[in-house]
Amino acid sequence: MSVVRSVVTGVGAYLPPKVVTNDDLSKFVDTSDEWIVERTGIRQRHQAADDQPVSDLATEAAREALAAAGKTAADVDLIIVATTTADLTFPAVATIVQRKLGAPVGIAFDVQAVCSGFVYALSVADGFVARGHAKCALVIGAETMTRLMDWSDRGTCVLFGDGAGAVVLEAGEGEGTTSDRGMLGFALRADGSKQELLYVDGGPSTTGTVGKLRMLGNQVFKHAVVNISEAIHAAAEKAGVPVSDVDWFIPHQANQRILQGVAHRCGIDENKVVSTVAIHANTSAASIPLALAHAINDGRIKKGDLLLLEAMGGGGLTWGACVLRL
Predict the structure, then answer these.
(1) How much is the pTM?
(2) Which of 5, 34, 52, 138 could serve as a FRET partner for 239 with CA atoms 20 to 30 Å apart?
(3) 3-174: which CATH number, 3.40.50.2300, 3.40.47.10, 1.10.260.40, 3.50.50.60?
């Protein structure tokens, strides 16, 4: 039986030119390269320029993804941006990207699920494309997380970086089997009772300010490994594939220890794990598409590979997983 699925046809990424090393941070916060690497695996991160809003990062990643898909802005009829660090309270970053790309009138909106945002946004876009409500969708994860940092808090300011990644989704026909290209299975979760573990202490209807990121890191770590593992198995079950069949595991790049813990718990070979946390740090909703683009560009990931994506972070907590064939 013929089945229509949403297929990734192009991937793009953008990182701001400025690189901030651990040694750079040690000049103004009580930390060291050894301390950060041992606890997180992070060695550097990129930081957006003062005059560089998140929509600029998103637009550059989108352009690269469109070029990879052989498409232009004129083809785009849906833009979804996953972000926590919007240019403005409104309008949505997606509509700003639409304007900057010169895309025609269509559907454009943001998704706010913090680190899980890209997986959530993929699921939403899949609902449009696979059901014929959009023909060419841009799904973008873009963040300027360094804007939310309290630079005196060494437990958080060393963890985050800025960047953007994007994919183009188009409809493709398959035979309804796990060999089809496209989205095969999702599992999305949220638990609003865990807000105090990871949040920003400001907002337009409370403090009237942007606020700073606050986190209980050890508690987030404890929930991450268990919760992500459950979502991974649920997504794989919906996709109809065993986790062992996955060619590449592309997790949210929060912490190298979490990546290793989840892979071990799920029985995933560490050689299948795509890790960019050392060079990108935690870029929240941008981390998965950035890692995906990185592994495609270095030749590891190829068309036809079975991919497992997962993420967990603030926004509840929120977490989720996706299985797709590139």
Answers:
(1) 0.98
(2) 138
(3) 3.40.47.10
